Amino acid sequence: xxxxxxxxxxxxxxxxxxxxxxxxxxxxxxxxxxxxxxxxxxxxxxxxxxxxxxxxxxxxxxxxxxxxxxxxxxxxxxxxxxxxxxxxxxxxxxxxxxxxxxxxxxxxxxxxxxxxxxxxxxxxxxxxxxxxxxxxxxxxxxxxxxxxxxxxxxxxxxxxxxxxxxxxxxxxxxxxxxxxxxxxxxxxxxxxxxxxxxxxxxxxxxxxxxxxxxxxxxxxxxxxxxxxxxxxxxxxxxxxxxxxxxxxxxxxxxxxxxxxxxxxxxxxxxxxxxxxxxxxxxxxxxxxxxxxxxxxxxxxxxxxxxxxxxxxxxxxxxxxxxxxxxxxxxxxxxxxxxxxxxxxxxxxxxxxxxxxxxxxxxxxxxxxxxxxxxxxxxxxxxxxx
Length: 385
Known about the structure:
The chain is of the alpha/beta class. 48% of the residues lie in helices and 11% in strands. β2 and β3 form a beta hairpin.
């Protein structure tokens, strides 16, 4: 399938007008974030009917995609999470309706398949893996680079058809649609600056006052990186934040002696801002979040392991990707009695509800079935003595 390069606003607006009237279209993006805080959109690939266009976001304003995204047309992605992040930042919105072929394939027996493996297994297409180190922001792109980029959307609509048919036959199309909507509406964008410190290695071993400093300095770094659009490591390395958190410097000289701090960090306005963050952090009372599962009643903690085993067995038997069925956080939320727990309603409850309740309430146990799997067995109620 041939493709067109779109590098003028009029051409792009015409494409958006056309796609706003179709039932579905394939979409993918190429981007970089190695040298920036926010992802830098480098290419948008769009496919429909027998056409593919490669849109150059360096040459055109891509915000008219909002009009397309607001239309009833279904956007077909593969592994959409990062694309949604990039589009949120670059366009300001995401499609109102979407289908993720990777996510949908998880309901038909696949486990987070790559596009290449899914195309080969379902359509017999041997797609090129391309050059993983391509600089998509460089212009002009070579003919090979363009062909590779076009290939990312060339067969998505065929995959959509094939997976939809399989899901319909399995009675799981609604499940896949619900999972795609969960992904579509999941929060995207930059992390909360006040939570940035939790990504630091060894942060949990810091003492109380040091935790406040680490939180305040990491939050300053996050905001600073966002304001100048550079990676956080270029503002201040992790090691420096930990060194500052341990030393509690109050002067430029003390700051300069903290481990990981370079001269450029301790002088001028940057040094003053870091020292101000240190003082703000010393006034904070910060606790480390409780590890997942520890907030459960002690008597229920063993149930997490037990229920996890049953979830894995159901996923295997039903040929559903375990990651789609339930995460550890889902299990904890259910056992904790959260009303919004994903396992408490919908297709997940349909598959797991009775079994999980039986296990937690002591009405059932797990045993090997002799064929490499597990099965639930009823447990007789204890007899009071």
